[in-house]
Amino acid sequence: MTTNNIGKTKRSTDDLIDDAIDRQQSWLNNRRRFTRYFLRRFNVFEKDEPEQPKVVVVKTEKETETHQKNKTIVKSYWLPILCALIVILLALFIMLFKINAPVKVITPPVPEPIVKPVARQINSPSFDLVRIEKSGNIIIAGRNVRESNISIVINKKIVATKHTNKSGEFVYAPSDALKPGNYVISLIDTDKNIKSEDSVFVYVSERGYKNSVSLLMTKNGSKVMQAPELMDGDLVVSKIDYLDTGRMVVTGRALPRLRVSLSLDDKYLGFARVSDYKNFGLGADIGKLESGKEYKLNIRLHDGEGTTIANIEHKFVMPEMTGDDNTFYTVRRGDCLWIIARNFLRRGVLFTMIAERNNIDNPDLIYPDQLLQIPMKD
């Protein structure tokens, strides 16, 4: 053991740390100096940064002029544009929020047109109405030359003479009821001795006015003036047409999709189905009927099993035919020209004749209550 270390103390930890920090700081300083020297050597700090290329947008003269013009328009017309916007906003406000006040329309007085009555040329007396009333009395109305004398002829016998008014109209209504039977009525202009071109066939039924018939007979066909009310439960017959071709057409209403049959003097003639609109039409050939002879017509309604659930028996006396070149038919819901042609003309393919006669461009388009003229001798 030596005596040199006697009285000396051990180095503290703080001194060791400070010494290490000094050495490290010296090393960093030397590194900085070397780095500066190296950078100066290669003149890094003296070089300028490379300039970024500038993008130059080249505009054409036309674009430049347009741009300048737009700027000029905006600068020159900014006030009118602002005013227009204000007006539009005010108009929208008025349309949305303004309360509509009643507008008074003042129309200048217009003198009423002077209408001159057109005189109707009458060549012979004519019928307007022939009807059997509930009491059985008959009413006959017609027209002729004004303030003239008209004689009413029933079954070739003059029964009364009437005087027409200023409009040329007359009415005949006797107090006595007609007895059941057939009557043919015509008119005669007493002053000029001119007979009416048309006549009226009247059938007065024993079962009352509901079963009576009034038929206007003309050269061009016949027109029902009063039809009998043929009804039995859900079966209603609205019209019976007899054509001089020997064909009869019966139309009416019944329960949909049931079957309606027709027979004349107990001879079965055929059947037809009721449409979904409760209408039916049935045509059959019955041959020539003798004038003045009584016939019995039966229209029956059958259910799905064929049982008769309604029956209309119509007895009539055949009047004398005056010619029937054409007849008329009123279209009902569910009708088509094919069925109408089959009933009246025997064959459905003849529907083109009906379309041509009535100027129908589209045969598939007909309307309820449309009156069709049926050509019988074309």
Distance between the termini: 165 Å
CATH topology of the domain at 121-228: Immunoglobulin-like
What would you report as the Rg, rounded to the nearest angstrom?
A: 55 Å
Q: Just name the CATH architecture of the domain at 121-228.
A: Sandwich
Shape: elongated
Text of the CATH class of the domain at 121-228: Mainly Beta
**Major sheet characteristics:** 7 strands, antiparallel
Structural class: alpha+beta
- What would you give as the CATH superfamily of the domain at 121-228? Immunoglobulins
Strand content: 25-35%
What is the helical fraction, as a range of percent?
10-25%
Describe this structure in words.
The protein is an alpha+beta fold and 378 residues long. Among the domains are: 121-228, Immunoglobulin-like (Sandwich); 229-320, Immunoglobulin-like (Sandwich); 325-378, Membrane-bound Lytic Murein Transglycosylase D, Chain A, CATH 3.10.350. It is 22% helix and 33% strand. It contains 4 helices and 20 strands. Helix 3 packs across helix 4. The chain is elongated and about 165 Å long. The N and C termini lie far apart (165 Å).
